[in-house]
Amino acid sequence: MPTISMFYGILIRMFFYDTDRHNTPHLHADYQGQVAVYSIPEGGVLAGSLPPKKHKLVVAWIQIHEEDLLVDWELAVHGKKPFPIRGLDQ
Fold first, then answer.
1. φ, ψ (nearest 5 deg) of residue 16
2. Pick from 87, 9, 21: which is nearest to 51 by CA?
3. CB of 26 within 8 A of CB of 41?
4. Which pTM was predicted?
5. Taking the domains of the chain in order of start, what are their residue ranges?
6. What is the pLDDT of residues 31-46, one digit of tens each?
7. Which is nearest to 36 in space by CA: 23, 51, 24?
8. Ramachandran angles phi, psi of 9, nearest 5°
9. How does DSSP assign 24-48, residue by residue?
């Protein structure tokens, strides 16, 4: 599972071929062992949770990078490595 971004201690990842459980384009956000799965188009939580302040950062980041994330999603579901995306703290 490639890490596509890191900011404020949050790791953002996409799994290869990850369409079984959540058909919608999504990403995995990991902060200190807590993991949440976010829908890319809406930024809503599909599973898990993060602390409220980290959740807000992830949602804002998704809104800023939605187009890039959808391109990465297409790459990942076809087994190709997604491109890194700039974090909020860069």
1. -75, 140
2. 9
3. no
4. 0.90
5. 3-77
6. 999 999 999 998 999 9
7. 51
8. 80, 0
9. S-EEEEEETTEEEEEETTT--EEEE
